Amino acid sequence: MKYILRKVVFAMILMLGILLLFASNLSTNGSKLLAVIRGTRVTSIEDMTKIFNGLEDVMNEGFTARIGFVEAFSRAAKILGKKEFGDFLYVKDENDYLHGSSFYSGPDPEMLSYAMRVKVMQDIVEENGAKLLLVIPPIKYRNGDTVMDYGLPAANPENKISELMNVMTENGINVIDFNSYFPNQTLSYEQCFYRTEKYWTIPAAWMAAREIAHWMEESIGTRLDPTGNLIGPNAYDWVTYPQKMLGSMGQKTGMNYIGLEDFTALWPKDAGLYEYLSYLENGERDIIRGDIYQTLIDRSTVENVDGVPRVSAYNCYLPGMYLHNIITNRNNFEGIKVFMIRDSYFSPVTVFLAPLCGTIDTIWSINEESIYSVETYIENTNFDFVIMEIDPYNIGNDVFDFYQEEAEKRIELEFGVRDETRTEWP
Description:
By secondary structure, the chain is α/β, with parallel strands linked by helices. It has helices at 2-38, 45-61, 66-79, 111-127, 158-170, 189-192, 202-220, 248-253, 255-258, 292-295, 300-303, 347-353, 368-371, 374-380, 404-415; strands spanning 84-85, 90-92, 98-100, 131-136, 175-177, 236-245, 261-268, 274-279, 285-290, 324-329, 336-342, 357-364, 385-389.
C-alpha cells in the first residue's frame, strides 16, 4: 500500500511540475504564439502544418530553462572532443568554425534552366527600362583556409557555384559572385566569416553593398553618394563588442561547445528618416516610421546582452523575417527604386543601401510565389533595379521558381527538345 502511495505522490508531483513548466512557457511565449496564429491565413492543410511548425519553433526557442539544457549537452560534446554536432547537423573545422553538413548529391541537370529563367527575367526588366543583377554571397568553406578531419561532410558548394556562374555569364546575365571578392587585402578570412554564424560579417556585407552601389552607379551613369557621407567608411561608427556574438549555428550547439566571438557593427552616423512596411502572410500590414534605429536597426540585440546571447547579433540589421517588406527613405522620395529577391545574407546589405535609395521593395527568395506572382509584380511595377541574391548553399529549383515555361521554350529553340535521360543539359 505504501509503495502504491509513493507512486501516486510521485506522479502528482511530476504532473504538477509539468503543469507549472507549461504555464511558465505559455506566459513567456503567449504573445509570440498568438502572433504565429494571427499571421497565417488558413486555407489548406499546408497552412495548418505551417502554423503547427511555427508554434513548435516558438516553444522550442523560448522554452523555459532551454539554455541550461542546451549548454549542458554542449559541455558534454566539448569534453568528448566531438567534431560533429547534433547527428551531423553541423561539423567543426580545425579552426573551430562551424559548417553545415552535406553529403554528395551529384550535378544539378537544371543549371541551364535556372540561367534561362533569370535571362527571361533580365530581358523583361530591361524592356521596362531597368537593370537586373544576380548576387552570390561568399561561402565559408574555402580550399586552403578550411581544414577538416577526414570524412567530415562539410557543405562545400564551390563546384555548383562555379557551374552556375559559367552558365549565367555565357547567357549574358549580370552577376557578382562575392566568392571572388572575399577574403581580400582589406578583410582576411577571419574578418569575413563568423565561427558561429552561416552568414558573412557585417564589415563584409558593407563592402559588398559598396560594390553593388558602384555597379548601380555605372549602370545609370550617376553618382549615388558623391560625398561618401551615406555609404563611405566615415559614414559609420565602427564599434566592436567583445564576446557578444553567438550566431544561429552557435545557438544550436551552445556556447560551451563553440565559444563566443567578437561582433563588429557599423552604426550609421546619419540616422535619416524611414518607413518600414511589412506584410504578414494573412495580408495584414505593420508600419513603423522613424529614424534608422527605430525602423531598420535594433542595437539592443547586441548592446543589451547579459550572459549567453539568446539571439545572433547579426539580427541587429533588419530584424524579423517577413516575406515582404517595403523600405521608404523619407528623406529621398525621388531616389532610385530597387526590387530585391533576397534572404538573410542581404539583411545588412539592404540597410547599407537604404540611404542611397528612394524605396527598396524586398521579398524572401524561397517563398516569392507564396505571396504573389513575382513575374506579375515585376512586369507591373516600376523599378530602376532588380537585385536577386541567392543563398550559395541553396541553389535549386525553389529559388528560381519563376518564368519556367518561358525558359523551357527558349531552351528548345536554342538546343532542341530536352532529353530527360541526360544528366547535363545541354
